[in-house]
Specification:
The longest helix has 18 residues, at 131-148. The protein is α+β, with helices and mostly antiparallel strands and 248 residues long. Strands 3, 4, 5, 6, 7, 8, 9, 10, 11 and 12 form a 10-stranded antiparallel β-sheet that branches. The protein has a two-stranded antiparallel sheet with strand order 1-2. The protein has helices at 2-11, 45-52, 85-88, 131-148, 232-247, and strands at 15-18, 21-24, 56-57, 65-67, 78-80, 101-111, 118-128, 152-156, 161-172, 175-185, 194-204, 207-215. The two termini are 35 Å apart. A hairpin with a 2-residue loop joins strand 9 (161-172) and strand 10 (175-185).
């Protein structure tokens, strides 16, 4: 009987059982989040609606994306300065060109109805080979974004030009954040004015999470939702990071 108990203890040494609850053993390293599991890091419309107190919906023309490094995208048009491309464009290929990427997942949610504070929320996850690689890339992004603070980044696609002013770059609790003021101009026409966008990148385990929250340029106190330019992208990033921890 004692031999059986010893064998059982050895076989289950990776966990401790207390009143029916299974917990990771002390010192057990988190497992990397890879494969189809990466998609589960993304928040769904119910979670976002609860977090921001406004309804969201998906659009068929912008379906969820999942895959490897090929899932990353190029910025819209010629970017100047190019070193700031990762601040103004989420999951941009050039920003991640030195990374050993396992999987990428992305989804965008749009305001479902009526007057609200947030236009849309784009969220993405990049799973790297190891946690150390993710931490190193986060440090690299932090240095790049800091250098871009106060810079106006131009994305020139010929028929339309975006001018993105980067400001308020900061790092708090493993989340890198910035505020963008985006102006749009058509050839021969004045700027359409600017709209605010909150950006954030968080790191947890072997994953980087990215968030892009676009706000309506005109906002009234009566508009639905609790979206806040200073905190919303950071809050969403933290919620996604918690899901990485739960899946590790």
């Amino acid at each position: 009987m004692l031999a059986c108990l010893a064998a059982l203890t050895l076989a289950t040494g990776c966990t401790s059982v207390v009143t029916g609850t299974v917990r990771p053993a002390v010192g057990l390293k988190p497992r990397p989040v890879t494969g189809q599991t990466v998609k589960r890091v993304l928040l769904d419309e119910a979670a976002l609606s609860k977090l921001l107190d406004q309804s969201f919906t998906a659009k068929s023309e912008l379906p969820p994306r999942f895959g490897g490094p090929e899932t990353l995208q190029r910025a819209f048009g010629l970017v100047t300065p190019e070193d700031c491309v990762g601040v103004v464009t989420m999951l941009e290929k050039r920003a991640y060109r030195s990374a050993q990427i396992e999987n990428v997942a992305r989804e965008t949610w749009w305001n479902a109805r009526g007057l609200a504070k947030v236009i849309d929320v784009a969220e993405g996850v990049v799973a790297l080979s190891t946690a150390s690689e993710a931490a190193a890339l986060f440090a690299k992004f932090s240095a790049q974004w800091e250098r871009c603070d106060g810079t106006t980044v131009t994305l020139d696609a010929g028929k339309i030009v975006f001018s993105d002013k980067v400001s308020e770059v900061r790092v708090t609790n493993s989340v890198l954040a910035a505020t963008l003021s985006i102006a749009t101009r058509m050839p021969g026409a004045p700027s359409s004015g600017s709209r605010p966008v909150a950006r954030a990148i968080g790191v947890r385990g072997n994953c980087l999470v990215e968030v892009d929250v676009a706000f309506f340029s005109t906002r009234r106190p009566s508009d639905r939702g609790t979206g806040d330019l200073d905190t919303t992208a950071i809050d969403i990033a933290h919620a996604m990071m918690e899901k990485v921890s739960a899946l590790s």
